[in-house]
Amino acid sequence: MVRMIKGAEESYDAHEVPYSKVYVWPPGHIAVAWCGCSGEV
Length: 41
Fold this sequence. Notes:
The chain has no helices and 3 strands.
């Protein structure tokens, strides 16, 4: 099951994010998506 990153659901759909990628949002949150799972770091 894919977990949506808190506050990031407004920026993207976890199901559409390539795996093994690191994303940084304006708020300064760094999110890592891998194996279909997402979480804040």
